[in-house]
Design goal:
By secondary structure, this protein is of the alpha+beta class. The protein folds into three domains: 90 residues, 2-Layer Sandwich (Phosphorylase Kinase, domain 1), CATH 3.30.200.20; 213 residues, Orthogonal Bundle (Transferase(Phosphotransferase), domain 1); 165 residues, Galactose-binding domain-like (Jelly Rolls). It has 13 helices and 22 strands. It has a six-stranded antiparallel sheet, covered by helices on one side. Helix 3 packs antiparallel against helix 9, helix 3 crosses helix 10 and helix 5 runs antiparallel to helix 8. The relative contact order is 0.08.
Length: 508
């Protein structure tokens, strides 16, 4: 095979180095001399040219992948034959396989593993939408480029759901470390089979090892049929219950217990990524790029600094200049105010209270297991003047808080008498109480009683999308607490998109 290096295929592609080899084909890095760019070429091995089934599989791969155009699928550029040997030309991805990444560094950081899983699931979703099942999802078939993004490759045993014959004879195609139960048994294979393999791949990314070992490929395949995957949280305790639940559902033995489609799995993975990013408060470039593609309602749960990470040096310089200007501006004004709220005044006699960017704080005195925070990275979104962003409570999967309440409070330093509050929310239906105090709140508060505790000044049993709440205040207060006592019916969290306090005009 090495003698082919230096030869030219199709009068255009000069083979430069062998980068992969299998029983059916060999992969080379080549130079496209017409466009002067590197490409990857999969060339069918001479010894299998006489096998009509192998030849058809090779041609079918070209036809299948040529239909797909997705940022996380290695694209087909060209196909042809040279001296009777078929070849496929792919885009060349500089980097390493996901398997190499795991072997090199062991188990992946949790947010990174979830980000890769989302990209792979989106790629599979694009294939499944074309009725193409990959049938060999494994880390060896996922390439990680120099920017950290992944691309699925090697649809060599893929087939459309409309095809019959080539793999309908009960043969198991695919790597048994990741094979689905139905594929191991030679039964019909669908997109759910790819999702099972992705679930196994997620297990490996998180633990650094495949779930099953055996004396042979057949014994491993039978474990996928008969045995549940080991508990990922036992192997890695810091894995959240939400993430473990995704793996459990993806790798369920019965199809009716598994994710029905890619969209369901992607939605859960996106939720998990937002949770993990908020929990860790840090993310590498590959995680950040995926975070930026999340739906807006999920992206709002991610800490502000991760959602708005500045990569460009020019933008960073401009940001520093803007900060310097803001500091000069703030040096010449009172503590109140870095921007106007989005709400118009509900009464001609009232005007909005301007709050500083850091004047909102989460409040969770009844947090379980010593956890007294409640998405602290998002609190500024509730007073940023943008109704499209929001602070959101943690997820309560039972649909109930399971405690007296949770909320956020605003610091209206030095103090303000605010007879009215307006709340905007994208999750209407929750209950709220408004409390005030002048002493600085503590996460160890015995809420709400005590000589230095809170005073209740307002409430709403059902918070609408735009809720006006009169406040029974007769003097100035420094701290105003939005205390959520019940979640919206059928929801697992509540969002506060904007909170605006109003004071009478002419009063300082």
């Amino acid at each position: 095979m090495s003698t082919l290096v230096g030869t030219k295929l199709g009068g255009r592609y000069r083979l430069e180095a062998r980068i992969g080899h299998g029983g059916m084909s060999t992969v080379y890095r080549a130079l496209d001399e017409t466009l002067q760019r590197s490409v990857a070429i999969k060339l069918m091995n001479r010894e299998v040219l006489s096998d009509s089934a192998q030849l058809e599989r090779f041609r079918r791969e070209a036809r299948a992948v040529a239909q797909l155009n997705h940022p996380h699928i290695v694209g087909v550029i060209d196909a042809g034959e040279d001296e009777g040997r078929p070849y496929i030309v792919f885009e060349y991805v500089e980097g390493e396989t996901l398997k190499d990444r795991i072997r090199r560094g062991g188990r992946l950081p949790i947010p990174e593993a979830v980000a890769y899983a989302i990209e792979i699931a989106r790629a599979l979703g694009a294939a499944h939408a074309r009725h193409i099942v990959h049938r060999d999802v494994k880390p060896q078939n996922v390439l990680i480029d120099e920017e950290g993004s992944c691309k699925v490759t090697d649809f060599g045993i893929a087939r459309t759901l409309d095809e019959e014959g080539l793999t309908a004879d009960g043969r198991v195609l695919g790597t048994t470390d990741y094979v689905s139960p139905e594929q191991a048994l030679g039964q019909q294979v669908t997109g759910q089979s790819d999702l099972y393999s992705l679930g196994v791949l997620m297990y490996e990314m998180l633990t650094g090892e495949v779930p099953f070992r055996g004396e042979s490929q057949v014994s491993v395949a039978m474990k996928h049929v008969r045995e549940a995957l080991p508990d990922v949280q036992v192997k890695r305790p810091e894995v959240s219950a939400a993430l473990a639940a995704v793996i459990d559902r993806a790798t369920a033995k019965r199809l009716q217990d598994r994710y029905a489609n890619d969209a369901e799995m992607i939605a859960d993975l996106e939720d998990v990524l937002a949770i993990e990013a908020a929990r860790t408060g840090d993310a590498g470039p590959e995680v950040t790029s995926v975070l930026q593609t999340l739906p807006a309602r999920k992206r709002r749960r991610v800490p502000f600094q991760l959602r708005h990470r500045v990569r460009s040096t020019i933008l960073a310089v401009l940001a520093l200049a803007a900060i310097a200007g803001i500091l000069v501006f703030l040096a010449n004004r009172a503590h109140h105010g870095t921007g106007l709220p989005a709400e118009n005044s509900p009464s001609p006699a009232l005007m909005p209270v301007q709050l500083c960017q850091n004047c909102a704080h989460d409040y969770n005195p009844f947090g379980l297991d010593g956890t007294k925070t409640q998405n602290p990275g998002e609190v500024g979104l509730a007073i940023d003047g943008n109704p499209a962003t929001a602070w959101q409570t943690e997820q309560y999967f039972s649909g109930a808080l399971g405690k007296p309440g949770v909320g956020i409070y605003m610091d209206a330093s030095p103090h303000v008498e605010a007879p009215e509050m307006v709340i905007l929310t994208s999750t209407p239906g929750w209950s709220v109480q408004i409390w005030v105090r002048n002493t600085t709140p503590s996460r160890t508060d015995n809420f709400p009683v005590g000589p230095n505790g809170w005073t209740k000044v307002g409430a709403a049993n059902y918070v609408g999308s735009r809720q006006k709440i009169p406040l029974a205040v007769h003097r100035s207060w420094r701290y105003y607490l939005v205390w959520i006592t019940n979640l919206p019916r059928g929801k697992q969290s509540a969002s506060v998109n904007e909170v605006t306090l109003y004071r009478e005009k002419g009063l300082d």
